[in-house]
């Protein structure tokens, strides 16, 4: 039986798909990228619908690979999640975002930074303790950091998840649900967990105003969020028509290419914090 097992293993190795090899290779390169400091955070402005003011920035990771150039997080984050490398990468993201939040806080800018969190990071029992340490190290006041979670992270062991989210809230962190409406989970978690913000997924924004169903979905998410005393932010806003529709329906804030792509911190300051880019 042992021999057969070994044979099967060899067979598997030889037959290993090109995709799996690519993944292995990518994981090795990601490790090296972390050591060599090849990651950067770009920031996309989040804009208050009523006033047009910049109220926040979503931090989005970028990898400048010396061989391939800019590699999309959509390609490497899933690989890092699978291998567990997302934990040190996520730690780097949090530290870098906190350092940036400190700089903007010191310069008198009233904005929060929203960081995308992976399931594995939330599963770490000492996540809230680590964040408390970072807040102390960088002297961050409450409301400076938001964490974006996805619906799938809120399924599973409810008591434990609730305790973890409460610990994060106790630090003055706001919690958002990213890609809202695209998960398969029930909405029960909205009652149970201390959520502050729903982010309307860009798939419901993209085809406004051509797709009546998407318009109804977006409007319904806004109405429901307000009933539950949650704020709502639309992502992927690319056209004035989309912006006008969401504003008319009472959406609180938005982000999207209509205002800006995610940009490096220095460009963000120049365009959105130092002078008015109206
Ligand atoms: P996401 O969190 O849903 O981020 C929104 C994505 O939409 C970003 O892609 C952003 O650049 C893009 N986007 C923003 N405005 C528009 C628009 O008007 N139109 C269109 N078509 N797209 C727009 P990006 O930066 O490539 O990130 C992809 C995903 O990678 C993110 O989706 C997020 O799930 C993940 N990700 C990025 N940074 C991090 C990170 O630091 N940690 C973790 N765990 N995941 C991250
Ligand atoms: Ca996000
Ligand atoms: Ca999203
Ligand atoms: Ca996403």
From TrEMBL:
Q: Does the keyword Kinase apply?
A: yes
Keyword Kinase included in the entry's annotation: yes
Domain of life of the organism encoding this protein: Bacteria
Q: Where is the EAL domain?
A: 23-276
Which biological processes are named by the entry's GO terms?
cellular response to nitric oxide; phosphorelay signal transduction system; regulation of DNA-templated transcription
The molecular function GO annotations come to:
cyclic-guanylate-specific phosphodiesterase activity; kinase activity
Q: Keywords on this record?
A: Kinase, Phosphoprotein, Transferase
The identity of this protein, by name, is: Response regulator receiver modulated diguanylate cyclase/phosphodiesterase with PAS/PAC sensor
* Taxonomic classification: Bacteria, Pseudomonadati, Pseudomonadota, Betaproteobacteria, Nitrosomonadales
């Amino acid at each position: 039986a042992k021999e057969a097992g070994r044979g099967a293993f060899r067979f598997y190795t030889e037959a290993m798909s090109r995709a799996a090899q690519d993944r292995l290779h990518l994981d090795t390169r990601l490790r090296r990228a972390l050591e060599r400091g090849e990651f950067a955070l770009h920031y996309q402005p989040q804009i208050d619908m009523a006033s047009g003011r910049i109220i926040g920035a979503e931090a989005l990771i970028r990898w400048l690979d010396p061989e391939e150039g800019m590699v999309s997080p959509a390609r490497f984050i899933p690989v890092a999640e699978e291998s567990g490398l997302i934990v040190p990468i996520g730690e780097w993201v949090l530290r870098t975002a906190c350092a940036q939040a400190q700089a903007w806080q010191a310069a008198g800018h009233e904005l929060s930074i929203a960081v995308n969190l992976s399931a594995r990071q939330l599963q770490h029992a000492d996540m809230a303790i680590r964040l408390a340490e970072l807040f102390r190290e960088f002297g961050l006041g409450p409301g400076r950091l938001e964490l974006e979670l996805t619906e799938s992270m809120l399924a599973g062991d409810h008591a434990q998840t609730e305790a973890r989210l409460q610990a994060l809230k106790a630090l003055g962190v706001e919690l958002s649900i990213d890609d809202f409406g695209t998960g398969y989970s029930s909405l029960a978690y909205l009652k149970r967990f201390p959520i502050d913000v729903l982010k309307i997924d860009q798939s419901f924004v993209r085809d406004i105003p051509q797709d009546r169903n998407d318009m109804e979905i977006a409007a319904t998410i806004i109405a429901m969020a307000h009933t539950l005393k949650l704020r709502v932010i639309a992502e992927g806003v690319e056209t004035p028509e989309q912006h006008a529709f969401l504003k008319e329906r009472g959406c609180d804030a938005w982000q999207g290419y209509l205002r800006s792509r995610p940009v490096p911190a220095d460009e963000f300051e120049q365009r959105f914090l130092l002078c008015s880019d109206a």
